[in-house]
Amino acid sequence: MTRYKIEYINSEDKITRRVAKKSFKVGGYNDLPPKLKPSTENHFVQMMLHNTPYEMEHRQPCHKDAPGQAASAEGKQIGSMEIFWYHDGTYLAISSWGESASYWEGKLCDHDYETTTQKMCYWEGVCKKCGHEHMIDSSD
What we know:
The protein is mostly beta strands. The chain is 7% helix and 47% strand.
């Protein structure tokens, strides 16, 4: 698993957010993303309105045992799929088959954070499993 970090740099009284981007592409164009599970339209919309995806990816998953045939998950056929990756390795996806759309979600790791820095309104931690670094600044 690739590690990535969001850094904050103070310059001229402005806090500038810089993402040290490293791709965490998982699987190929014809593969379903890992740990895929059904989601709802409401959850998809709420997450998209309140969180900014880190990366977007298009896939056309194929059935593993029958190349050229569309993949299926949870009893639903999946033709084309748009995946919206978030900085912590979670993702949302929307797929289509004919006239219907299906909503999906998943995550690469069930994070178990160990605190590395804690101050008044600021917290930093590193996941013990994958090394993901996360920070929360609640003073905003």
